[in-house]
Design brief:
Layout lengths: L5 E4 L16 E2 L9 E7 L2 E8 L3 H22 L7 H10 L8 H16 L9 H6 L14 H10 L6 E4 L2 E4 L12 H15 L4 E6 L2 E6 L7 E8 L2 E11 L4 E6 L4 E4 L2 E4 L2 E2 L4 E2 L3 E8 L2 H25 L5 E5 L4 E3 L7 E3 L1
């Protein structure tokens, strides 16, 4: 089985000394950090941990509570298969060739995502929810079998896309009734973006949000010299790291990998990262990690880079002027962006 990796934050007490295999701790260039106030809850199908630093407990707990409640609301509104959510209602309207009025914030994010998807040449495309369902990745259990070639070709013949959506007289319409929205590829990016706003509203000096290994660091001080140390974990040997790097404040770090959600059928592994151009799982890169000040871009491009593979990743890097990325192929070979070289140490 190929060696794959997952970016996982570890707790360190003395600059990569005394490595513990769980948790997070902010490091300071000049001094040891104060202990954090942290809380873990479950949403978006993963564990979310919020760490807050240098803040009185009541103030920190109020901010964490606000983030948790906001995330739970987002989960219901944006979940593609939640009957009471907006995305589910949109998908039902599209399936019945009906227009639907939606909240302004959801319209705005759909339109922003349309622009982002177009820049990736629709390698990242939240309009492929039907394909995700066809492969069985819309639920919690992924067992197979894979869809037949006939079924995949039937989907390709329709090629539903988020590009098919348009707005007229404050209502959403679709040129293609096979479009099914699924924002699993960039919703966590939106969540981090909105959590940063909540932290700012609560005047939290410094914080870190960990959504199942996807990370958003935050500081009110733009000249903050504190940073986090992140270890690149080897999932076949979880007690070891193959690399470490530093993450400064107010950056998002997102990873997509073919090893995160998959099923095996007839001795073959099928990943949840699906290529809209082939209707099949991507299998060239094991993972892609992106550092970016915009969490939505980081989240979306991590997925797009895995799907683009060895022949298409450079075009995406050029299109987005991406400076910080780490790609790992199925042979465990690392492609490290030049700007990241100084911040990353291979073990």
């Amino acid at each position: 089985m190929p060696l794959t990796t997952r970016l996982t934050p570890y707790l360190t007490k003395h600059r990569l000394v005394g490595l513990l295999l769980a948790g997070l701790l902010m490091l300071s260039a000049c001094q040891q950090p104060n202990p954090s106030i942290q809380q873990t809850f479950y949403v978006f199908g993963t564990e979310v941990t919020v760490h807050i630093y240098d803040t009185p407990a009541p103030q920190a707990q109020a901010a964490i509570h606000a983030i948790e409640q906001h995330f739970l609301t987002m989960h219901q509104a944006w979940h593609a298969w939640e009957p009471h959510g907006w995305v589910y209602q949109i998908n039902q309207a599209i399936a019945h060739d009906q227009a639907i009025a939606i909240p302004a914030d959801i319209q705005t994010f759909i339109q922003q995502t349309q622009q982002l998807s177009a820049r990736t040449q629709y390698l990242f495309d939240p309009g492929i929810g039907g394909l995700i369902a066809l492969w069985g990745f819309h639920g919690r259990d992924w067992q197979g079998p894979p869809p037949s070639q006939t079924e995949r070709q039937a989907w390709l013949d329709q090629r539903p896309s988020i590009a098919d959506l348009y707005f007229h007289e404050q209502q959403l319409h679709s040129h293609n009734n096979q479009v099914r929205l699924d924002f699993g590829g960039n919703l966590k990016g939106l969540a981090v973006q909105q959590a940063w706003s909540i932290l700012e509203e609560h005047q939290i000096p410094s914080a870190l949000i960990n959504l199942g290994g996807d990370i958003g660091s935050f500081s009110l001080n733009e000249t903050d010299t504190q940073f986090w140390t992140i270890q690149v974990r080897n999932p076949k040997q979880p007690n070891q790291a193959i690399a470490s790097l530093t993450l400064p404040p107010n950056l998002a770090l997102f990873t997509s990998g073919t090893y995160q959600r998959y099923f095996e059928w007839d001795d073959q592994r099928f990943s949840h990262l699906l290529n809209p151009n082939t209707a099949e799982p991507a299998n060239s890169f094991a993972s892609a990690s992106v550092w970016h000040p915009d969490p939505v871009i980081a989240d979306s491009l991590a997925t797009a880079l895995v799907i683009a593979g060895p022949t298409g990743w450079q075009a995406l890097v050029n299109e987005f002027a991406l400076t910080h990325y780490l790609l790992i192929d199925q042979q465990n070979q690392l492609i490290i962006s030049p700007a990241l070289t100084s911040a990353l140490r291979q073990h």
